[in-house]
């Protein structure tokens, strides 16, 4: 179903089953997603070696760090996904001890990566699009490194489990 609001508002609303999408830089509501689904989506770009790009898109999402996490979380594709400066609109800060697969480690306006699970009390698996010339990859990261450099853990607001 498609509903058009008066032209002067420059706003369009799409309604489809459980999802409501509002386009024109307005918050988008999506359906929930499980941690297993997030991690399955994360592995797709790793397997495909999707190259980093702030302009190119895959499946409607920018091929940069925040586009990748937006893709993994199946959040809005509006504008290619969220950006690090507005990721906090769709996630909530959590404690280190609450981190689970599918959560993220975020430094607003800088970088975001997907948390893939603990290796030990500091090392963890990270899934990320890091920089130009690189491809989406799974690697290991140090929680202490990120924490001392202004990053914090966060959880997608619509994740289940």
TrEMBL record:
Alphabetical list of InterPro entries matching this protein: Papain-like_cys_pep_sf (IPR038765)
Protein's UniProt name: NlpC/P60 domain-containing protein
Organism whose genome encodes this protein: viral metagenome
């Amino acid at each position: 179903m498609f509903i058009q609001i008066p032209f002067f508002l420059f706003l369009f609303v799409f309604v489809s089953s459980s999802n409501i999408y509002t386009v024109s830089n307005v918050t988008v509501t999506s359906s929930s997603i499980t941690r297993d689904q997030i991690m399955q989506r994360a592995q797709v770009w790793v397997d495909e070696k999707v190259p980093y790009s702030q302009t190119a898109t895959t499946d409607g999402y920018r091929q940069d760090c925040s586009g990748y996490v937006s893709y993994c979380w199946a959040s809005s594709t509006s504008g290619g996904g969220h950006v690090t400066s507005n990721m906090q609109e769709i996630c909530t800060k959590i404690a280190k001890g609450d981190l689970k697969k599918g959560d993220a480690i975020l430094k607003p306006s800088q970088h975001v990566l997907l948390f893939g699970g603990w290796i030990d009390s500091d090392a963890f698996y990270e899934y990320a699009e890091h920089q130009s010339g690189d491809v989406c990859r799974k690697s290991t990261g140090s929680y202490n490194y990120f924490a001392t450099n202004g990053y914090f853990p966060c959880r997608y607001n619509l994740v289940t489990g």
